C-alpha cells in the first residue's frame, strides 16, 4: 500500500503570497484568518512576519517589485530619458490601480503609514530599487547626478508619493497632470533638459 503524499510545507513566502491575494481582492489582512487559511498556528505566523503591518508591507513590495521590473523591461532608451520613463510607467500604473485606491479609501491614515513610512519595508525598498536603477545608469556612463545616489532616490520616491497620495496629504485628488509635473521635476533633478528648454 502506497503512502499518502506529504502535503507541501508552508513557508513565510506562502504567507506573503496569501496576504497579497487578500489585499488585491480588497480584503482586510487578519493574521488569525491567514493562519487558519495556511493551516498553521497564529504564533508561527507572527514569528514569521512580525506583525500585520510588516506582512502587508512585504506583500505590497512583491507587487511593486514586479511592476518595477516590468517598467525597466518595457522602457527604451538610456540615461535621463530611461529613468524618467521607468518612473512614469510605475507611477502611472499606481495612479490608476483599483486595489491601491480601494486600500487608501478604506483607511487613509493606515494606508499612508504602510505606503510611505520610513519604518515600512515598502518605502525603504522602493528607495533602494530606484537607487539601483540610478546606479546602473551611472555605471553605464549614461548619468552623472549632482548629488548622492541614495539622497536622489529618496527625493524621487517622495516626489512620487506626494502625487500618488495627494488626496490624503493635501486633500487634492491625484491627477495625471501632477504626475507629469513630477516627471519634469525628476528630469531636472537628474540634470536633463525639459521640453521647454
Automatic annotation (TrEMBL):
It holds the Pfam family TetR_C_36. InterPro entries: Homeodomain-like_sf, TetR_C_36. Residues 78-186 form the QsdR TetR regulatory C-terminal domain. Coiled coil: none annotated. It comes from the Bacteria. This is QsdR family transcriptional regulator. It comes from Marinobacter xestospongiae.
Amino acid at each position: 500500500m502506497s503512502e499518502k503524499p506529504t502535503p507541501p510545507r508552508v513557508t513565510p513566502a506562502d504567507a506573503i503570497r496569501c496576504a497579497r491575494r487578500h489585499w488585491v481582492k480588497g480584503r482586510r489582512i487578519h493574521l488569525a484568518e491567514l493562519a487558519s487559511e495556511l493551516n498553521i498556528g497564529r504564533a508561527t505566523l507572527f514569528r514569521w512576519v512580525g506583525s500585520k503591518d510588516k506582512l502587508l508591507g512585504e506583500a505590497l513590495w512583491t507587487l511593486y517589485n514586479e511592476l518595477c521590473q516590468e517598467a525597466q523591461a518595457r522602457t527604451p532608451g538610456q540615461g535621463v530619458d530611461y529613468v524618467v520613463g521607468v518612473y512614469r510607467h510605475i507611477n502611472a500604473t499606481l495612479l490608476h490601480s483599483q486595489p491601491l485606491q480601494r486600500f487608501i479609501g478604506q483607511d487613509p491614515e493606515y494606508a499612508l503609514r504602510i505606503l510611505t513610512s520610513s519604518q515600512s519595508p515598502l518605502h525603504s525598498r522602493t528607495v533602494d530599487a530606484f537607487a539601483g536603477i540610478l546606479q546602473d545608469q551611472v555605471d553605464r556612463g549614461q548619468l552623472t547626478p549632482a548629488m548622492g545616489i541614495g539622497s536622489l532616490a529618496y527625493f524621487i520616491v517622495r516626489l512620487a508619493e506626494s502625487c500618488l497620495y495627494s488626496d490624503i496629504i493635501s486633500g487634492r485628488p491625484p491627477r495625471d497632470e501632477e504626475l507629469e509635473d513630477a516627471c519634469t521635476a525628476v528630469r531636472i533633478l537628474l540634470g536633463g533638459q525639459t521640453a521647454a528648454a
